Each structure stands twice: as structure tokens, then as C-alpha cells.
Automatic annotation (TrEMBL):
It comes from Moritella yayanosii. Keywords: Antibiotic biosynthesis, Oxidoreductase. Its cofactor is Fe(2+). Residues 29-315 form the TauD/TfdA-like domain. SUPFAM superfamilies: Clavaminate synthase-like. This is Pyoverdine biosynthesis regulatory protein. GO terms for biological process: antibiotic biosynthetic process. GO terms for molecular function: 2-oxoglutarate-dependent dioxygenase activity.
């Protein structure tokens, strides 16, 4: 790699390259180093999967948006959402707005669909008082560490994600699809191979069969690429699971996942997969101004529990299709 003369580029941890940490030799705004930053991304992102820009005088949604847009692709809207977040405008969103005491498991953004962003950026404006990291993991490593029999089984069967919207249990369909027009929802579903049905109360159920593993279009490496462990009912705490199933039938849960043929996924297999995810997790504390850029297929991300104020925003670009 041809090193830039204006940036320091080193792995954050001695034991692995992910993430590469990029800092300025002399301070300044990240926008002052765009040519060097683009060179680092071009030469490192597909190899390492993630680059952390740190130590620049860049804090705020507008500067973050400018940096993400500088890579040449329009920022994507968060379509077919699975979690609550706030649209800050022009392709910038808050990260998932789950309560601070809840941990969000590792996942690749929108791996529960057939359409996903190839690039994703996170910008820390305000670090949490305690914890609040955005842990990451190499999806290639996860793929290689999962038992080949499990991997082959998931790959051959694929996965069926089932979602029920509203009823006070999950996001309403109007929020997920960004419209109150049922016909517009139906057009989106038909265009994206999503099965849908409306019940008598006007609520919506969807199901979609998606990949469990995928091949990166540029590196041609295989990656573990799904959200089975996150959507499955076993991801819920036991008491919440018990309460939900006392109120609704399993088929009416806000979300769940099955093998592609509709057969149940074994809890024990998902527990083994979660063990691999934990083993591959890399965690580091946020600093104000940090921008983390990930190849969304090569690297998964999550969110730790936290206390205090925390503001991390996100942008996505370059759809896979």
C-alpha cells in the first residue's frame, strides 16, 4: 500500500487488522483530507472491512453527511425498517432507538432482506457515559468458524422472515414502509418478493425468503449474512417470550424466522451461532468525532448497553442490486 503523507494508518489492535484506525499527522477537518481518506478506503476497506477515522475536527450531522457523500454514491433511505430510528434528513439517521439497557446483537444491515447497502458509516457525536460501543465482527471469519454442517444446512434451506406490524408490539406498517397507502405497500412488496396479507383489523403480515450466506460481489469471499439469531423468538428474554406467547400465537409474534420451507429453526443451533458471534466480536470505545466506515457485507455491527447521553448517527450507500 502507498502510505499517505498526511495520515497515520495502523490497526487498532495488535492481534488483528479490524478496524484500521486513521488519524491526522496534523489536526484539521476530515474534509481537508478527502483525497487521502479516499485512498485509504480504496486500498483497505475490501481487505480489512472497516476503517475508523479518529482525531479530526469533524463533529456533526452536516459534516458527516458531506463525508459519506464524498464517496460518490447517493445516500440511501432506510426502507423496510426493522427497528425504530429518527430520520434526520438527507440520508442521515439516528442509530436504532432501543432502550439503553438493551443490547443489540451483531448483524449486517438489512441482511433480513434481498436488498441491502454495501457501505455504512457511523458517526459518534456524543459518546455514552459508560459503554455504548458499536462492536463489530468480520463476517468472513464468522462464516469460517460456524460448523460447516450448520452452514450448509442454512445455505440450502435459506430463511423465511415473518413480521406482524402494529398491535402495540412492534413498528406499525406505516412507519416501516413510510406511507399510509396500502397500495403503495403492496407495490413495494411485489417488487421485492415479499409476501403480504392484511387482516380484518387492517394490520399487515409479511414473509420473505432470503439468503443465509452470501458471496461478496467484489472480493468473491463467502460471508455469514442473515439475522436469524436476531429475529428468532429465542433472542427474547425468557420472561418476555413467555408474556408474548400468552397474548398471541407464535404466528402472530411481531417477528420470527424459520427455515425457508417454514420449518422451525432449532434453539440449540442458534445458541451455537451466537457463541461464534460472541467469539468474533471486536469492541472499542467511541470518541467524539469518530467516523467508522464499514463494508456492510464484510463486517457486522451491534450496540452495547449504555448509560448517559449517547448520540451516534448513521448513513448508508451503494445498494447491492
Amino acid at each position: 500500500m502507498r502510505k499517505t503523507t498526511n495520515l497515520r494508518i495502523n490497526p487498532m489492535f495488535a492481534e488483528h487488522d479490524l478496524p484500521k484506525i486513521v488519524t491526522p499527522i496534523v489536526g484539521g477537518r476530515l474534509s481537508d483530507y478527502l483525497q487521502d481518506a479516499h485512498q485509504v478506503v480504496e486500498e483497505e476497506l475490501l481487505r480489512v472491512g472497516g476503517v475508523l477515522f479518529r482525531g479530526f475536527d469533524t463533529i456533526g450531522e452536516e459534516q458527516f453527511q458531506e463525508f459519506a457523500r464524498s464517496f460518490g454514491s447517493p445516500l440511501l433511505n432506510y426502507e423496510f425498517a426493522s427497528t425504530p430510528r429518527t430520520d434526520l434528513g438527507d440520508g442521515v439517521y439516528t442509530t436504532t432507538e432501543y432502550p439503553a439497557h438493551q443490547q443489540i446483537p451483531l448483524h449486517n444491515e438489512q441482511a433480513y432482506t434481498l436488498n441491502w447497502p454495501m457501505k455504512i458509516w457511523f458517526h459518534c457525536i456524543t459518546p455514552a457515559e459508560t459503554e455504548g460501543e458499536t462492536p463489530i465482527a468480520d463476517s468472513r471469519l464468522i462464516y469460517n468458524k460456524i460448523d460447516p454442517k450448520i452452514r450448509q444446512h442454512f445455505d440450502s434451506k435459506k430463511l423465511k422472515y415473518v413480521r406482524n406490524y402494529g398491535n402495540g408490539l412492534d413498528l406499525p406498517w406505516e412507519k416501516v414502509f413510510g406511507t399510509k397507502d396500502k397500495k403503495q405497500v403492496e407495490r413495494f412488496c411485489l417488487a421485492n418478493k415479499i409476501n403480504f396479507e392484511w387482516n380484518l383489523d387492517g394490520d399487515l403480515r409479511t414473509s420473505q425468503v432470503c439468503q443465509a450466506v452470501a458471496q461478496h460481489p467484489k472480493t468473491h469471499e463467502m460471508v455469514w449474512f442473515n439475522q436469524a439469531h436476531l429475529f428468532h423468538i429465542s433472542n427474547l428474554e425468557a420472561n418476555i417470550r413467555e408474556v408474548l406467547l400468552s397474548v398471541v400465537d407464535e404466528e402472530d409474534l411481531p417477528r420470527n424466522v424459520y427455515y425457508g420451507d417454514g420449518s422451525p429453526i432449532e434453539d440449540s443451533i442458534l445458541a451455537e451461532i451466537r457463541g461464534v458471534l460472541d467469539e468474533c466480536t471486536i469492541k472499542f470505545p467511541w470518541q467524539a468525532g469518530d467516523i467508522l466506515m464499514l463494508d456492510n457485507m464484510l463486517v457486522a455491527h451491534s450496540r452495547s448497553r449504555f448509560t448517559g447521553a449517547r448520540k451516534v448517527v448513521v448513513a448508508m450507500a451503494e445498494g447491492n442490486i
